[in-house]
Structures are given as C-alpha cells and as structure tokens.
Amino acid sequence: MSVRQTLLAAATACILAVAMAPASAQTLRYANQGDLKSLDPYTLNESTTHAHLGHIFEGLIARDKDLKIIPALAEKWETPEPTRWRFHLRKGVKFQNGDPFTADDVVFSAERVQKKGSNLQTRIPSGTKVVKVDDYTVDFILTSPNPILNSQWDTWYIMSKKWAEANNAVEPTPAAATTPSFASLNANGTGAFSVESHQPGVKTVFKANPNWWRKPEHNLKEIIFTPIGSDATRVAALLSGEVDVIEPVPIQDITRVDSSQNAQVLKGPELRTIFIGMDQVRDELLYSNVKGKNPFKDIKVREAFFKAIDIELIKTRVMRGLSTPSALMIAPQLFKLSGDFKRPKFDPDGAKKLLTEAGYPDGFEVTMDCPNDRYVNDAAICQAVVGMLARIGVKVTLLAQPKAQYFAKVLKPGGYQTSFYLLGWTPGTLDSHNVLHDIMGCRDDPKSNRGEANLGGYCNKKVDELAEKVLQETDTNKRDLLIKEAFEIAAKDFGYIPLHQQALAWGVSKKVKLSQRADNQVLLYWATKQD
C-alpha cells in the first residue's frame, strides 16, 4: 500500500470511528452522601456499593428497570433436577482488559464469594458444588431444592480468574481491612464502564467501555463520582450545575430543589426497611455499664425498647412525612400478608414498667452504633431514639460514623462489634426468605452462612425451621402462611425493632433522564444527558 493509500485508509477509519461514536457523548457528575471505599465486589453487601460496582461488573443475571430478572452473563438456565441448576454462558464477552469470559471465571467467583472476608457469602448456599461442564456451561449442585437460587445474583458480580490470580487478588478484601488490596483499588469487569481512576474518599472516574457486549442505552463517555457528605454542599452542587445527580436529597431540601430552574427530585417508594437491633448473644454487652450479664437477653427489656420509640414522631419530625412506619422487617410490597401485622403501640409508661420488672428500675447505659451517611436522616433518627430511651431511664451514648467505619465495625468480618445499632435492609432476593435467613437466622453454625447480617445474634430455631420450609415450598399460598408464622414468632420475641421504609429522593439535573428503581440503586448506564 502506498503512503497516499495508507493516509486515506487512516482518515477513512477515523471518520468511521467518529460516525459510530455517540453523537452527544457526555460527562455525568454524580455525588452521594457516602464514599466508595473498595472496588472489590465482595467487600460490602450494600446497595449503594452494588450500584457503583454495577457499572464495572455484571452477574449471571440482571434486573431490569422494574426489578424483573433478565439474562446477563448467562443467556439462559434450567433446572434438570430439583437440586441442579444449569447456566449457559454468553459467548464472545470480554473483560475490560481483553480476556475472554468463560466458565472458569464463574467457578472462581463462586469460590471467592464464599471465602472468609467476603460480605456476600449468602449468595451461594452452603454445601453447593459448582461444576464446570464445558467452557460455557456451569452446574450448581445444591444440597436441597432452592427455587430462588439466582434471585440475588444481579449483585453477585463475576470476576476474572486470570486477572485475580495475576494480581494477588484471589482472597476477598474484608470491610475491616486497614490496608487496601489490589482488588480494592483496581477493577476488571465485563460491564458498561471501566475504572479510569479511584481515590477512595475523593473521586472515582468511570469510562465508557467501547467493547461492552450490550447495546448501550446511555450516551455517557464518563461518570465522575464524588462523595459529598454535607447535605448543604451536595444540594448546592446540584443547583449550581456542578453535579448532575445527587442521592439522597435531604428531606428538608426537596421543595427547594423542585422549585429550582436547573433540577428536580425523582421520588418514589423504597423497598428498604430501617430497623434497630440489639446484641442478644453475648453474655455481657461490649458497650454498657451492666457487667456480668446482657440486658437484651431479657425479652422484657427488648419489648421496653420497642414500646419506648415513638415511630409517628420520627415520621413527622425527623422524616417530615416521607416514611412509612413498619410492623415488619420487610416492605409491604414484598409480602402480601403484611397487612395482618400491627406495631405495638408507643407506651413509655409500659416500657418503664417492663424495665423495672426486668431488674432495671433506673435503666442502664449502652452505646448505639449508627451510620451518618448511609440512610435518609440516619444520624437524626438515632438521635431521636436516644432522646426517647432517655425518658425511660436508658442512657444511650451515640456513636455515629461514616458508613465505611461503621460497617467495618459491626459486620461479620469486623466481628459484630456492636451492642445496639441501626441498620437498613433491602432483601437481595426481593423475597421474605432473605430476611428470615440473613437477618433473623441463627448464626450459631460456623459452617453455615445463615444469619450473616444478623448483627445482634437473634436466634429462634423455629424461625430457622420455617425458613427452610419457605425456601422449598412452591405453593404460593402455603408459602405465605409459613412466612407469616415465622414473622409472628419473631415479632413476639421482639428480636428487632422495625422502624419504617424511607422514601426515595434523587436530585437530577433537568438535562438528565434517569430511571429510578425501588431498590435505590442509582444505575447510570440508563442515564442520558443533553448538551
């Protein structure tokens, strides 16, 4: 080829490349109240983290804008027998470093997600054998039938075996890790975006993946994520146009954002339940002035705490009406018999009487762990609870921390170091079994991943038995009755104090179109931005 022909071919290729690129590729700037500490997809089972990492990684399945399960890295699947699931993998998919995606990566990811240090061990049921049939077929052989096996696999992200082994990233990075691992600072997925740079606590830049196997629905060339903990600063950044999307919009600022020329608030119901838990397993609380015993092992103390909390006051004063008080540990949209349950009435006098009967007429002291940048008005809710418990003689020392420090302390990898805490939970399966297993399940079997998010160690073996039946029951009506029975037992135990479901409030520039899902995952591969 002559020099002239070479130059002409190069120019033609350049023109074609420009023509094929999105005509209005944009930079989208996003701010959240919390940080993205780690890029390791198995470090933290938390929906905001899952959403960030969902731009980089993908699961065997995905969920659409209505939360319905759709194929992703697995094209299809079947159950040849009740205890065997077979997944047929998508061919031609490459990781962002160019390596092909195969069954080896699935088997590796299944092993890695179950290892010590992972906060997502429940993604794979205990005792499951993961078998490579061929390069694009994988079998999951279970110890018992599980009709909802893959229901939370949209956030079980598949990692590259070759990349992990080459970079000493075979072991998961625990949330409590004090030294960053390679996988916490770098990523290699199959998703819509790759990571150009990651500075924990400062900024993360995602670049559009030109080789993504899907047809993009976004028109973004990059996403720049910046954590902004200050509510006022975050809102000001949105209104000035410095950022395009923020989450959450503080309740007190919703009207101001909606009345602005530049932005609006996307609102909707959320599936997350905010609740309070208590350490019911230790013989002596870690953080209390009561020595030699654990007050929370006494059902009267737990009932007293429940009845001392004025949920309507939290709704009107703290949440400004944007919450739905809950009698259950699951949103009513996810369990059709939830209307059969009623919260115990607010009764501070009754609570004080119960404390006296339990042997604490003057109350006691305890520390409450609370995030201050994770849920809507989380620290304010905890502060309100502190005041309410003070009325019955309980002195609560509030330890409110950024979520990175909070989760590192209270979750399983950190040793469940809490006596009294606030947490939020959206069941990854969108099913009651997840709550019964992960939140309410006994964690007394070290070989099982039951109760992985049961920070307080609540345990009732009857609930566990019912949870097992719920998992295998295929008759919907019978299944609902089993779920109801389990929730009734837990409610009578006062094992937890459910508070409410918070409302979604995302601030979005009027130049941006974005789909809002009820699980509160801000997924920007569905975002488009005007010039």
From TrEMBL:
A single GO molecular function term of this UniProt record: peptide transmembrane transporter activity
InterPro entries, A to Z: Peptide/Ni-bd, SBP_5, SBP_5_dom
GO biological process: peptide transport
Domain Solute-binding protein family: 68-444
Keywords, ordered alphabetically: Signal, Transport
Superkingdom to which the source organism belongs: Bacteria
Keyword Secreted: no
Any one Gene Ontology cellular component term annotated for this protein: ATP-binding cassette (ABC) transporter complex
CDD domains given in the database record: PBP2_NikA_DppA_OppA_like_2
Subcellular location: Periplasm
Range of residues in the leader sequence: 1-25
SUPFAM superfamilies: Periplasmic binding protein-like II
Cited PANTHER family: OLIGOPEPTIDE-BINDING PROTEIN APPA (PTHR30290:SF9), PERIPLASMIC BINDING COMPONENT OF ABC TRANSPORTER (PTHR30290)
Family per similarity comment: Belongs to the bacterial solute-binding protein 5 family.
UniProt-recorded name of the protein: ABC transporter substrate-binding protein
Originating organism: Bradyrhizobium australiense
